[in-house]
């Protein structure tokens, strides 16, 4: 019963992470394999969303972290102006 769409791997993970994955898989009624695949696929989706956001903000923004820092700085400037 070999499916050419899949590759079998051996994965070592910390015991606490394994417990969290097991609990999450039980809560969502998924197999451990399905839970891991769903989480990996979601992480790639997040990367794609971040890339699209960065693309929309132009070359000055190099990361979400930089955007957050810029927004915090802007918030501080606005608060200073409002205090005067």
What features would you highlight for this structure?
single chain; 84 residues; mainly alpha; 3 helices
Describe what this molecule looks like in 3D.
Helices cover 70% and strands 0% of the residues. The protein has 84 residues and is mainly alpha-helical. It has one domain. The model has no long low-confidence stretch (mean pLDDT 83).
Please render the helix and strand layout as text.
Elements: H1 15-27, H2 32-57, H3 64-83
What's the main sheet like? none
Which of globular, elongated, flat, extended, rod-shaped describes the shape?
Answer: elongated
- Secondary structure: number of strands: 0
- What's the helix count? 3
Number of domains: 1
Helix/strand/pairing category? mainly alpha
Question: Strand fraction band?
Answer: under 5%
Could you name the ranges where pLDDT drops below 50 across 5 or more consecutive residues?
none
On the 0-100 scale, what is the average pLDDT? 83
Spatial extent as radius of gyration: 21 Å
Could you estimate the helical fraction of the residues in percent?
over 70%
Distance between the termini: 73 Å
**Order of SSEs:** HHH
Quick overview of this protein structure:
Helix 1 packs across helix 2. 70% of the residues lie in helices and 0% in strands. The protein contains three helices and no strands.
